[in-house]
Amino acid sequence: MNYRRLGSSDLEVSEISLGSWLTYSGGVAREQAEACVQAAFDEGINFIDTANVYGRGASEELLGDVLTGRERSSYVLATKVYFPMSDTDKGLSKEQIHKQMDASLQRLRTDYVDLYQCHRFDRDTPLEETMAALSEVVQEGKARHIGFSEWPVEEVERSLALPGVERWVSSQPQYSMLVRTPEAELIPLCEREGISQIVWSPLAQGVLAGRYRPGETPPSDSRAASESMGGFIGALMTEPILQAVDRLRDVAAQAGLTLPQLALAWVLRQPNLASAIVGASRPEQVRANASASGIVLDEQTLAGIDAALGDVVYR
Q: The CATH number of the domain where 113 resides is what?
């Protein structure tokens, strides 16, 4: 496993990280989740990403149980705040940031998180209030660093112009061979400001792993067929996209790679990227994804990817 510096921080994170969005909030059995976390550590993955809203605290609670007993300095732990935890608890106000921070720490059974991220931008709270509250949780030692996810570029710029507040070290956008929108404005801004990308859905929720074939019903054990985990994959399950991904099989084969290795190596080619977050419901998926670390794609392979995907790419 290779490691990269997270923005301007002193954190070194594994190129592949373990996410817990749909899987460890109830999508898979506890024993499977524990086995996946163990496999991640075995493969050198040291970065684990979660959020308070995943299963309304269930993911954080599971990770708190599983990580108990491990040397705290041996892994980098990230969580998030913004989405509703109740009818009245939501957003990025000072009150909510402090309240949700304390609740997350209790569920995670730790005194601090390495990275506290704003899950989305809050238009109902003054930006100055949000940034001041984030700075307070860092000053209190409850978070070492802060990051944002899917913020509008103009709001990131506004936040960077505020004096006397904590600086971002990370950005968490959706980014993959199929979804390249961060390349236009977000990545150039972050490169200038010392902010790293930690990207979610680099395998397009399994579409780029080759699990789904054009004209075929999704496998019964797949995310697309799951009631608990398949609610967000529909936009990527169109016939044109599935046909384009099918064409990637030859590109991967010519490079001597699996489709997941090809897709993960493609996002890791981006120097502004620190880590690619992958979910996993089985330990063998963790191991397969971890094997992409260190793979370098040549120009012929990169050209083949673009030719295969054609105009289905979101830019």
A: 3.20.20.100
